[in-house]
Amino acid sequence: MNDLATYNFAYLDEQTKRMIRRAILKAIAIPGYQVPFASREMPMPYGWGTGGVQVTASILGPGDVLKVIDQGADDTTNAVSIRAFFQKVANVAVTTRTKEATIIQTRHRIPEETLKEGQTLVYQVPIPEPLRFLEPRETETRKMHALEEYGLMHVKLYEDIARNGHIATTYAYPVKVEGRYVMDPSPTPKFDNPKMHMSEALQLFGAGREKRIYAVPPYTEVVSLDFEDHPFEIQKFDKPCALCGAENVYLDEVVLDDKGGRMFVCSDTDHCEDRRAHGHAGHMLARPTPESQEAAE
Amino acid sequence: MSAVPLLKVNDVSKFYGSRIGCRNASFELYPGEVLAIVGESGSGKTTLLSCLSTRLMPTSGIVEYHMRDGQYRDLARMAEAERRFLMRTDWGFVHQNPAEGLRMTVSAGANVGERLMAVGDRHYGNIRAAACDWLTRVEIDEDRIDDQPRAFSGGMRQRLQIARNLVTSPRLVFMDEPTGGLDVSVQARLLDLVRGLVHDLGLAAIIVTHDLAVARLLSHRMMVMKDGAVIEQGLTDRVLDDPREPYTQLLVSSILQV
Amino acid sequence: MATPLVVSEVAKSFTMHLRDGVRLPVVANVSFSVKAGECVVLGGPSGVGKSSILKMLYGNYGVDEGQILMEHDGRLVNLATAEPRTVLEVRRTTLGYVSQFLRVVPRVSALDIVAEPLQARGVAVEEGRERAAELLAKLNLPKELWGLPPATFSGGEQQRVNIARGFMTDHKILLLDEPTASLDAKNRAVVVEMIAEKKAQGTALIGIFHDEEVRDAVADRIIDVSEFSPRKQAA
To answer: Cα separations (Å) of A27 from A33, A200, B33, C106, C207?
Structure first.
């Protein structure tokens, strides 16, 4: 127990948490605006969610229920490690059920289950600056945000259409928040963009390496940028989930063999499991048969 | 010619510490007028151009611009947002090095369309049509519209830069050695193009150049600078045919005759 | 009769700073006037300052003292002191100039070079080209050349393009700097005829003609420029 006592609750010291909370409050007050903060070294490499972890650590209380997902899944390395981390340093309850969680830290997905008031979604953000790829100078991009000069964002979309005939940006699709700041929603698929709009949940974004925090408060307008003659569209899938039969959800491709066999399944594992538990079934779902039961024994 | 000046420059000086960049420049520029600023390198012509185009703040003096609403505005007292808006709508700036004025990693079409998107144009088809039109006007084949300027020759890049600047129908264009670094035949083509555009669009322009032939071909009026000061100014013909100041005479007599 | 041009006590000298500031007086006390419909020829030996006077009248040369008054747009303009933009405005509508040499503009066709002064005054492109074509035909410039830039034309061909350009407009004052220098007899006769037409229209013409035959045909009056020689006056 001695080594546990060397950690403050939720790993970060209280001063750091206060500093981060101040940044979060400012970010909530100015939706979509990137607030600089003094990002700390975390016991994990950059790119593994140091920003999200710091935000989560700063808002986490003993009564919270934490869910961590990576690309929609609760059971991948990143999700498992971060969940274990907070179990150890904060001893909080954890869950994989979207409905039950009060705080959901996510890497690159928004759960399919509509989030409710009182829930907080914490995004891990690698590159918070949406203008970065066209304008490398930080001084210039900050000025562009300050003066609301966002023509460049459309230059990027223009390039997409010119090259591909349609807006080919499929993730990290830029949005305008509350009619003011253009924001990178982190590399979530654009499929999830509409979920951000007028969401009942609080959405917080942490970029550890880039030292930025930004936020979308509940009930905030989030509009994906587009052209009049090339309106924003989300991805569509031809088939339902192969396991739970869900339609209108984001699917992952799973390769089954080396002969081209593959299937499409829900990226949100909790959603998929929940549906199966309620009796929904896709065409690839293995049904219990006498043989398989024998094999299991 | 319109009766009121587009730009009023009153006693503009710029010091870099104790060194002089330019001093006591005063003149007025009218709509449709092309002014050449000539002088050797280090004479202060680029500093003056920067002060006029708000890229630098003058140490003293006032530059006023006749806005589209008919008001004169002191450029130094304008809010930055307004100044930047002016720079990308009513003004153009053609750099000597096209790489400074272009986005080298986006297509020619997007380079031209950027200003339109910046002022709120949100119709891809219209933006592309405007870009096509402007590429044609600067003699770049329409089928190069999706190529990046990296793949363009120096002369094409410079023409693209001009198209990018003119797409919002500016009234005033600043040019810093627009033909510098181009070989002679490419220069001639560019000069002719600029001359035609300036004439057809009724643009006012301020062109910094060390090449008197450029000044002769493009400008109505010229100013000769030396050691930061304007030493002679007047009608371009007059300054070149009948130079008064020792330095101007030296400059004119130094032209290579072909 | 109207007098669109009055030159009064004009003096001009060059200071050659590159030659230790040597001051070269060119002309002094130049005074004359030209009436509408009159053709005045500047005469005298070469080097006496004929071209310099013409260039001062056009504004290419600065004027040390005196006045050059022109009637422009219903008012009197002193070209000796006028602002550059006023000079340009006068040139556009009142003051024409046929120089000895054509300043070739790259890539612009002969027809468009001739039509340009009209376009500058707001005449439609097609109408300007039609009138340009008429004049070039009159001056016997082969039709094949009209669409080409004159850079590669012969001296005489360039000269005819230049003349056509100068005669296109209805400028009230027209300056002619040896317009017939490199023309053959046939085309000289055309130019003489064109000058006569201008006179009939009431244009005031001031010219330099070395060709005596042409000079005698067009001149109403010859001003001996050696009268304005500063040395002679000092003596």
So the answer is: 6, 17, 50, 60, 79
pLDDT of residue B1: 46
pLDDT in tens, C11-67: 999 998 888 888 999 999 999 999 999 999 999 888 889 999 999 999 999 999 999
Q: Where are the domains of chain A?
A: 2-224, 236-284
Closest CA to B246 of C12, C19, C64: C19
Cβ-contact A235, A189 below 8 angstroms: yes
- Return d(Cα A128, Cα A124) in angstroms, integer: 10
Classify strands C5-16 and C22-34 as parallel, antiparallel or unpaired.
Answer: antiparallel
Q: Which CATH number fits domain A2-224: 3.40.50.620, 3.40.50.11310, 3.40.1190.20, 3.30.365.10?
A: 3.40.50.11310
Q: Is B119 within 8 Å of A162 when comparing Cβ atoms?
A: no
Query: Cα dist. B34→B5, B31, B177 in Å?
Result: 12, 9, 14
pLDDT for residue A287: 66
CA pair distance B233, B25, nearest whole angstrom: 11
Residues of chain B positioned with their CB less than 8 A from the CB of C55: 241-242
Total beta-carbon pairs less than 8 A apart between chain B and chain C: 56
ipTM of the complex in this document: 0.88
Q: Domains of chain C, with CATH numbers?
A: 5-94+171-234 (3.40.50.300)
Of the candidate ranges A142-146, A255-259, B175-179, C123-127, the one whose mean pLDDT is the lowest: C123-127
Residues of chain C with C-beta less than 8 angstroms from the C-beta of B188: 106-107
In three-state secondary structure terms, C25 is: strand
Chain B residue at shortest CA distance from C59: B238
Who's near B159: CB < 8 A, 6+ residues apart? Answer: B138, B139, B140, B190, B193
Cβ of C91 under 8 Å from any chain B Cβ? no
Query: Do the chains contact at A159 and B106, CB–CB below 8 Å?
Result: yes
A63 carries an active-site annotation = no
Query: B interface mutation test: which of A134, A147, A158, A232 has the most B CBs within 10 A?
Result: A158
What integer pLDDT is reported at residue B74 of this predicted model?
95
Q: Which residue in A208, A241, A245, A282 is the catalytic one?
A: A241
If you count residue pairs, one on A and one on B, with CB atoms under 8 Å apart, how many are there? 57
Nearest-Å Rg of the Cα atoms of chain A is: 20
Question: B46 and B208 in contact (C-beta within 8 Å)?
Answer: yes
Q: Do B220 and C88 touch (CB under 8 A)?
A: yes
**Catalytic residue flag (residue A208):** no
**Cβ burial, residue A81 (10 Å; 0-12/13-18/19+):** middle
Structural domains of chain B, ranges and CATH numbers in brackets: 1-90+170-258 (3.40.50.300), 102-168 (no CATH)
Question: Rounded CA gap, C150 and C157, in Å?
Answer: 8
Query: Which amino acid does the sequence have at A46?
Result: Y
Q: Does A147 contact B at CB distance below 8 Å?
A: yes
Shortest Cα distance, chain A CAs vs residue B137, angstroms: 20
Residue of C nearest to B216 (CA): C103
Is A272 tagged catalytic? yes
What spatial distance separates the first Cα and last Cα of chain C, rounded to whole Å? Answer: 36
Higher-scoring residue by pLDDT: A133, B110: B110
Listed by number, the residues of chain A in 117-136 with a beta carbon closer than 8 Å to a beta carbon of chain B are 134
The active-site residue, picked from A51, A244, A245, A282, is A244
